[in-house]
TrEMBL record:
The entry's keywords: ATP-binding, Nucleotide-binding, Transport
Originating species: Streptomyces lonegramiae
Listed GO MF terms: ATP binding
Protein name: ATP-binding cassette domain-containing protein
Family annotation (SMART domains): AAA (SM00382)
Amino acid sequence: MTDTSGIHVTETTATHPRGPAGSPPLLEVKGITKSFGHGRRRLTALDGVDVRLERGETLGLVGESGCGKSTLARVVLGLERPDSGTVRFNGTDPFTLKGKELLAWRRRVQMVFQDPFASLNARMSAADLIGEPWRTHRDIVPTAKDRERRVRELLSLVGLRESDAHRYPNEFSGGQRQRIGIARALALDPDLIVCDEPVSALDLSVQAQVLNVLSELRERLGVSYVFISHDLSVVKHVSDRVTVMYLGKVIEHGRTEDVFDRPLHPYTAALMSAAPTLDVSGRTRDEEIQLRGEIPSPFDIPSGCRFRTRCWKSEARCGDHAPLAVTREGAADTGPEAHEALCHFPLGIGTTGA
Ligand SMILES: Nc1ncnc2c1ncn2[C@@H]1O[C@H](COP(=O)(O)OP(=O)(O)OP(=O)(O)O)[C@@H](O)[C@H]1O
């Protein structure tokens, strides 16, 4: 598939290995709130965030800088404890785990970082970098022979050669380094990989190769992704579902085609119209929606609908109270197929009457 950005991404046809009927989603985040102190002031980075990810699927997470994407990722990875709300991974709350159970859970969730240069130690060979997580999780590959074999397998999985095992990061291109980052994330055989801007530091053609590696791994291994990116064309290609965040809140979520083809929230429509390579709902670039003003300070979140200060549809009621969730007509309002937005005046449907 090639889109107007020139990114060519291989389409795969395999079905995603959902769990048995009735089994819990791989990841279910409910009502997560997280605030941080800044001197005497506090800001709410996440405000009642719900996210759900089925096994073998990719969830795209989008929103402008500071909306809380990385904080949410850190909560999902167990690196940041939420103030309230629940995280369930395979039905279990990881924040209740201790000792061996906690260690076993940590294996299941891994991370691919934005900048492969920054996250790889330049003095370690590719084999050492890929195998580093085994120092903590020794039982996975107990012998040196197992480790060598597994490194070879992982290099092959990400499209590198066996001989690359003994090379150092400065001997690889940016795309190859990101492949090493992915192999390292795979070393513990995770169920979920959180990818935070994994291709934004790479050239366009290399981006496509790395995205193809991620997509092939999903089909071959059944791994799921939370995929954070500012680049909506990339998110559109890789995601089954999209969650749009604004100032710490999820303001729209749904299946990728629903959110991209028929955005409900004016903010989503504006984000998409500003993406240089996307043609959203027949709009051309000349019709780009210009958002008013800057994102408000997270210390001073507008009353009512937090997007109202920048929204061209806003009316008095938007400041009076927070909008309720609205569902596009004909779309499910619960479960994995739901398409919902938080808006008093959603696009394409009547007002909420709220
Ligand atoms: N450890 C921290 N201490 C204090 N404030 C924090 C901390 N981590 C995040 N924040 C604040 O929380 C808000 C959300 O930040 P976060 O990094 O999650 O946003 P983001 O959407 O990932 O942004 P970006 O796209 O720039 O990475 C921001 O206002 C940020 O300054």
